[in-house]
Amino acid sequence: MARKSVVIRLAGESGEGVISSGDILTQAAARGGYWTNTFRTFPAEIKGGPCMYQVRMGSERVFSHGKWVDLLVCFNQEAWDLHWDSLHPDGVILYDDTAVEIPEEYRDRARPVRMESLAKEIGGSLRAKNMVAAGAVAAVISFDTTPIEELVLRRYAHKQGVADANIAALRAGGAEAADLADRLRVDAPVEIEEDRVLMSGNQAIAVGAVAAGVDYFGGYPITPASDILEWLSAKLPSVGGKTIQCEDEIASLASCLGASYAGAKAMTATSGPGLSLMSELLGFAGMAEIPVVIVDAQRGGPSTGLPTKTEQSDLNHALYGGHGEAPRVVIAPVSVEDCFWAAVDAFNYAERFQVPVILLTDQGLATRMEVIHRPDTSQVERWERRTLADLDDDADYRRYAYTDDHVSAMGIPGQAGGQYVATGIEHDEWGHPGYTPEIHLAMQTKRWEKLDPLKNGLVRHVTHGEEQPADVAIIGFGSTFGPVREAVDRLAAEGLSVGAFYPRVLGPFPAETVAQFAAKAKHVIVPEVNYTGQLARLVRAETGIDLVSRAKCDGLPFTAEDIHDIVNEEMAR
Amino acid sequence: MARKSVVIRLAGESGEGVISSGDILTQAAARGGYWTNTFRTFPAEIKGGPCMYQVRMGSERVFSHGKWVDLLVCFNQEAWDLHWDSLHPDGVILYDDTAVEIPEEYRDRARPVRMESLAKEIGGSLRAKNMVAAGAVAAVISFDTTPIEELVLRRYAHKQGVADANIAALRAGGAEAADLADRLRVDAPVEIEEDRVLMSGNQAIAVGAVAAGVDYFGGYPITPASDILEWLSAKLPSVGGKTIQCEDEIASLASCLGASYAGAKAMTATSGPGLSLMSELLGFAGMAEIPVVIVDAQRGGPSTGLPTKTEQSDLNHALYGGHGEAPRVVIAPVSVEDCFWAAVDAFNYAERFQVPVILLTDQGLATRMEVIHRPDTSQVERWERRTLADLDDDADYRRYAYTDDHVSAMGIPGQAGGQYVATGIEHDEWGHPGYTPEIHLAMQTKRWEKLDPLKNGLVRHVTHGEEQPADVAIIGFGSTFGPVREAVDRLAAEGLSVGAFYPRVLGPFPAETVAQFAAKAKHVIVPEVNYTGQLARLVRAETGIDLVSRAKCDGLPFTAEDIHDIVNEEMAR
Amino acid sequence: MSTAEKTKLSPNAYKSDLKPIWCPGCGDFGVLASLYRALSEMELDPANTVIVSGIGCSSRLPHFVSTYGFHSLHGRPLPIAMGVKLANPELTVIAVGGDGDGFAIGAGHFPHAARRNIDITYLVMDNEIYGLTKGQASPTSSFGQKAPSTPYGNMEEPLNTLGFAIASGASFVARGASFNTKALTELIVQAVEHKGFSFVDALSPCIMFNNHQEEWKQTVTDVAPDHDVTDKAAAFDLAIRGGFSLGIVYKELRRTLDDKYRDLAERAKASTIDEMIDAFSARKGAAIGKPIT
Amino acid sequence: MSTAEKTKLSPNAYKSDLKPIWCPGCGDFGVLASLYRALSEMELDPANTVIVSGIGCSSRLPHFVSTYGFHSLHGRPLPIAMGVKLANPELTVIAVGGDGDGFAIGAGHFPHAARRNIDITYLVMDNEIYGLTKGQASPTSSFGQKAPSTPYGNMEEPLNTLGFAIASGASFVARGASFNTKALTELIVQAVEHKGFSFVDALSPCIMFNNHQEEWKQTVTDVAPDHDVTDKAAAFDLAIRGGFSLGIVYKELRRTLDDKYRDLAERAKASTIDEMIDAFSARKGAAIGKPIT
Ligand SMILES: Cc1ncc(C[n+]2csc(CCOP(=O)(O)OP(=O)(O)O)c2C)c(N)n1
Ligand SMILES: Cc1ncc(C[n+]2csc(CCOP(=O)(O)OP(=O)(O)O)c2C)c(N)n1
Ligand code: SF4
Ligand code: SF4
Ligand SMILES: [Mg+2]
Ligand SMILES: [Mg+2]
Question: Is the model's pTM score more than 0.95?
C-alpha cells in the first residue's frame, strides 16, 4: 500500500554532491507534480564538513520536513554514524559500500549503490555521483525519472554527450536499487492544472519585494540572507530598480534610508550580526519616520555563532534593539508562501506608517524549498506613503505635523515646498530641534500610537485548529508553524480541543487577540527555537497569561513529532 | 525659624555664568559642611539656549534635587518665563532688573540685583556676574561667604587683583539682597570631623574604576559620558594604566576586548548611540567570555534624541541588545555614592564571571553633584579572574572547559601552555569551532548558568522602608531612588506601610526576591523615566506580578513630590 | 522637477528660518555663507537640492539652509547621500560635516564613496577638533595637541585628508578655508559641478576649543598655478607636503556610479513580476544542478 | 615571559592540532606556510605571540597556529590587536584577515591603526573576493568583474590597498604572494621585526570563486632594486602604477604608539587612589570655576 509522503535524507561530506542530489530530487518532484518541503544543514566552512539534505515529497501538501527518515542515502561512513538513529523502523538505506559499513541487523533493508564507480564509469565523472544517487532514490520510491531526465537535457542542452552520460548514470543508479522498487512507493500526485512554484523563503521574499514595488536594495552578503541580494541584483534592473552591495551593513541601511527619504521603496536583508550593526540606524529610522524594510534571516547565535544553523533568537533585538525607544514593526512569516505576502505587507506597513519594518525569518525558512501555490500577483495591493502631494493645503508645511492618525505627510526631494530636515534629534512639527518636555512626550506618543491600527484589526494573524481551544493553546511565531499545524491536526484527530495562534505581527503585539485565543485553554504552550524563551517572555509581559515555555536550543527546527510529544508531556503534568 | 534645606535654582542663557554660579555655590556649600544635591539642564548646542542649575543644600543629607524652588535667580527674561511656575509659595526671586520684568504681585518677594553693572564696575569684567549672583544668594540664605572667598583665593592664587575684584563683586552682590537676609535661613551644618567628598556620578564611577584596578580604558567622546574618558586620561598614567580615545565606539569596545584578552581590566564608557554601535561586540564578549565593563550614561532617546536630557530608556537594549542570546550583567547604581561601589562590583563581576557588565546610569545621575561620605577604599575588594595559573593541572588545557560553576580558566598571553583561540563562533571546550546540537546547548547553558549566583544572594539589592510593605510597594531602578526614598519616608510618616525595592543587578533579574518583596502589597508601583515602561514589562515577564506602570517621558528626573503624588493617585483608585 | 528647471535666487533666499546656533566667530559661519553664495551662483532649485550631514556643530548646517536636508547620525552622511543620489540622480546632493564625523567614526565610508565615484560633493568643515563634545582631539588634530582626552598631548599623527582622498579614488580633491569665502564659494561651485565624487576640506576654525584662525590666515598659501591637477602622483606629493595650500589639488574625469546605473538600466531588458515568477514554475523547473539557494 | 626568552621551534611546531578547512589549492595555504616559517625563523615564543583575525575563510587562520589566537568579528581585527598590544607591549601581535574584512567593513579602522603607528603587523590575504560567503565582489575586485551580486559586472573601481596604506600613514607597506612562499616568508619577518604598523598585502587566490593564480603568477614582478622605499611620493607613485610588484614599497621609522605610552608612563608621577579622592574632598574643594563635570 502506498504512502501519501516520503522523507528522504541524503548525507555525506559537503562538496560530494549531496546538495545537488537533493536539489535534483526536489526540482524533479516538483516538476512531477508532488508537493515538497526540505531542510538542509551544511558546514560553515566552504569545503569539507558533514552536510545533509532532507527532502519530503508528498501527493498531498507537506508543511514540514518530517522527523523519521524513510530513505537514508549515505555518501560516507560519517553519514551513517550521524544519521542512523533518525531512521524510521521500516526505513530503507542506500549506501556506497566502497565507503560505508552497515551493521548486520540493517542489511536486509539496505542496498549498496556503487556511486563512485558508476559515476566514473558510466557518468563519465565523479560529479555524476548525484545522478547515480538520484536514480537509486527514484527506484526505491518508484518515482518516474522522466522529469529528472528532462531537467538534465535542459541543463546540458548544448552538451548532448554530458546529458547522455548523466542520464545513463541516473538509470544505472536506478538499476542498483531495482529490487527495492516499490519499497516506499508514494501515491501518484493528483493531476492538477494549477501552476505551482518551487521556492525558498528568501526567494519568496525577493519576489514579494518586487511585487510590492521595491525600487532600491542596499545590502551586504551574509549567510543565510545573501541570495536575496544576489537575486535582486540580477532582477531589479529589469523593473527599473537598483541594487548595490555596500561596504557593510551600516552603509547598507544608511543608503536605504537615503533612498527612501528620496522617495524610493527601500529594502535591505541581513542576518543577526548585520542586524546588530544596524541598531543605531534602526532607531534613527524610527525617529525620523523613514520607511524601510529590513529582512533578518536569523541564524544560530549569539555572535558569529552557528552561521548555517537555524534559530529564532533575534526576536528580542528586533523588538527592542537600539538605545532609547524607537518604534518599529516586526513581521514573522510562517511559511515560504507567507514570505511572499509578508514582504508585500512589510512594504505596505513601512510606507503607510513611515516606520522601519523588520521581516523576521530564519535559516530553516529562508533556505527551505517548498512547492507552493503560485502567488496571484493580481491580489497584491500597493500602499503608498503620504506625501506633500496628498495635502489639500501645503502652506506652512510641517513634516512632523500632529494629525489624527499620527502620520504626517513626507516632503519628497523634488516636491517644491516640501523642504524639511530629516533628523534623529528630538524635534517639533517642523523638524526643528526641540527638547522641551512637551515636545518629547508629544512626539514619542505620535511615533508610537501611529502603529495602533496594527494591534487592532489591520493584521490577519495566522491560526490553525480551534479558535479558542479548551485543552491546548499553542502560541508561536514564524517558521515553527509548519510542524505545529501538522501536530495540531494530529492532536485534533486524537480528540483534543487544540489550536495554534501565530501573531504575524509581533511588534506592536496583539495582546488582546492573543489573550482571547488562550482564554479557555488548560495548557498554553509556547514552542520556539532559542535558549531564553523570548516569545514566552513577550507574551507574559504583554498578556500576563500563565504559560509554559518550551524553547529548544540545538540549531534544528521542530518537527511535527516534537510538537506532538511536547503537548503530550504537558498534558501529562 | 530656619529650615533643614533650601532649593536654589539659577537660570539664564547658556554661557552667561549660570553654570559657574551653580558650581561655585555647590562647592562652597560642600566646603561649608552642607550636604548637596544638584540638577542641571543645558542646551545640546555649545553656545546659546536656556540652561538651568538647581542646587539643593541642607544641614541634613538631601537625596534629591527638590521640586519647588525656594530661591529663583533669573539672569534673563526667559529664565523667569520658564521657571516662575516652579516657585514655592514663599519662594524668593533675585533678578537683574536691566534684563528681567517681574509681575507686580511677585515684587514683594523679589529683589533686583545689578548683576551686569556690578560685575563690570566692581568685578572688573562681565565674567564676574557669577560672583555677584553667588553673593546675593548667600545673603538670602544667610550663608557665610568665607568658603566662597577661600575658593576664589585658591583659584586666583597668583592673580591677587582678580581675586580681590571677584571677592568685591561677591560682597556687592550680597549687599544688593541684604534686606532679604535670613529670608531663607538654613540651619548651620552639624560640625563633623568626617571628610566628605563632592562628586558627580561620572566621577564616582571613574574613581571607583581606579579603586577596582582598571588597567585599560578605550572610549569615544559622547554627552553625558565624556568626562569619564577625560578624567581617566589624566589619572590612569599615574597608576600605570592606559587610556585611549578611539576612532569610534566599535573600536573602543573592540580595543577593550583585546586588552582584556591580554589580561587587563578594561572599561569603556558611552551613552545610548554608542551602546547601539557596540551591539555586535557585546554579543561577542558574551560568547567568547571576555570580561569588560561598559558604562552607559543614558540620555533622552531614541536616536540622537535629547543629548543633554535624562532618561532611563536603554534598559531593554542593555538586557537584550544584540542578536542571538548573549549573557551580560546589568547593574544600575542608585546614587552618586553607589556609583563608586557599583563600578567596583562591575569589575568584580566581569572578572569573576568572564562576562561583559553594563553599568547603567543616566544624565541626571552622571552629572549630579552630591556630597557623599568619602568612599573607604580599605573596604574595596578586588576579585581576579580565574586563569591558567589557578589550575592544579594544566595538561590538556581547555579554555572553555565545563566546570561546576560553569566558569573556565582563561589562558593569558604570556602564560605558556594557555594558548587558545578566543572566538565568537560556537565552539567546544577547546575553543574549536563546533556546531553540533549538543555543543550549542551545553555551551549556551554554561554561558548563562554561570551567572546564577547573581540571582541568589551574591548581590546586595537596595531597599528602603518596609521589607514587605502592606500598602504600597515601589519597584524602580537607578537614579530614581533618591526621590523615591524621600517620598517613602514621608509616606511612612503619614502612616502608610510602604517600601521601595531597587534591584542593583537587573540582569540576571532577581525574580524571587522581587516577588517576595511585593507579595503583600495592595499596590505595586513601578516608576521610571521612559515611554514604554521597560522595567514594568521586565518585572511582569519575570514575576507575573500585577503592577501599575508609572513611566514618564519628559526628559526630567522624578522629584520626591512627584512620587508622593503618584502613590496617592494610585491609592485613590 | 529636473534640475533643468533653474530658478534665480539670491544667497539669502537659501537661508532657512532657523538662525545658526554656532558660537559667534565660528568658522562654520564662513563656510555656510560660501555655500549660500555657491548655491545661488549655480542657481540650484532648493527643492532639487539635498544637504546631508552627520552629527557635530558643523553637521547642524542643513537646518540653516532652505533646501531639503538630512541631519543623520554621527559618521553616516556619505552612505546616506549615496542612497539619495541613486534613488533620484536628478538631485544635487551635498554631504557636509566635521573632521571627526568624516574621518573618525565615518572613515570607513569615505574610500568607498570615493572609489565608486558617486556624483556627490563632500564638504568637510575641518577645525581639527571635536567641537560639539567640547574640544577633544580629532583625527586631524596636530601631534602633541593638548585636549580634554589628551591632557599630556595628542600621541597620534594627524590624518592627511587630501592624501587620503586621493588614495581612496576621489576624482576631485580641494582645500578651502572659512576665512576666504570668495575662494571657498568658487571651490564649492566647481566641486558641485564636477561630475563624480568631489571632496572639499574647508579649514573652519573652532574659536571655542581650537582657535587656529590667525595662525591659519598667516600660513595658508595658494596651490601653485603650475601644479598639474590631473597628475595623481604630483597631487599626492603636494598633499603630503607640510602646510595648507588652498585650491584644487586633484581632478580626474571618470564615469560616475550613477551614470553606470543609467547604462545598466538601458541595457537591461524590461521584465514583469509574472515573468520572474515563471522562472520558479514547478512544471518548468529551474535549471538542474544550479544551487537553488 | 618577555619575548627575550626565545625558543627554537621548527615551522611545524607552530601548527595547531586543527587542520585547515580551506579548499584544496586555496592560496591561504601558502600564506599559512609562510607564516609558520616566519614565526620559526624569528624564533617567536607561541605563548608570547597573538594572532588576531576577523571573519572570512582567511580569518580562520588563527585556529591553525599554535600561538595565542583571537578570531574576532568581521572587520574588527585592528582595534582588537591594538588593545592586545597596548595591554601587553611584550607580545608580538599579528592581525590577519581578508580583503573584505580589512577594506570593506573594516576600512574605518585601518587609517587609525596606521597613523597611530601601533607596533603590530597586518597581513591581508587578498583574493579580491568574498570567499566564505561564496564569491561576491570585494573592494579589491577588478572593475567589470562578474560575481553573484554583480551579475552585470562590478561597477566600482578597486581600492588600491598599498596606496591607501601609504596615505593612511602606515610605516611599512609591502606586497607578497601566496605562490611565492620564500619571498612572503621574508616579507613577514621584516614586517614583524619592523617597529611600527606594518602592512603586507599578500595575493592569495581563491581557487573556488576567483582563481587568478595562473594570471598572477605570470604578471607579478619584483619591486625594482633602485626603488627608494623611504620616498613616500615615489612609493605612492609605484603603488598606483598598474600591475603587482612584490616586495617592500614603503618603509619609515617613526615612534610607535606603544613607545609613546611607555614614555608617558615614565613621565607620569605615581599616585594612589586615596590621593585621587582627596581632590574631591568637600573641605578642600576643587578649584573654583573649573566646571565640575
Ligand atoms: C555614535 C555617536 N558617538 C558619539 C557622539 C558624540 N558626538 C557628537 S558630535 C561628535 C564629534 C564632533 O566633531 P566633528 O565631527 O569634528 O564636528 P564639529 O563639532 O567639530 O563641527 C561626537 C563625538 C554621537 N553623537 N554619536
Ligand atoms: C557583520 C557581518 N557581516 C557579514 C558577515 C558575512 N561574511 C563572513 S566573511 C565575509 C567576507 C569574506 O571576505 P574576505 O574578508 O575577503 O575573506 P575571504 O573569505 O575572502 O578570505 C562576509 C561578508 C559576517 N560574518 N558578519
Ligand atoms: S564649539 Fe567650536 S565648532 Fe562648535 S560652534 Fe563653537 S566655535 Fe564652532
Ligand atoms: S572559498 Fe576560496 S578563499 Fe575560501 S577556502 Fe575556498 S579557495 Fe580559499
Ligand atoms: Mg571638528
Ligand atoms: Mg577575500
Answer: yes
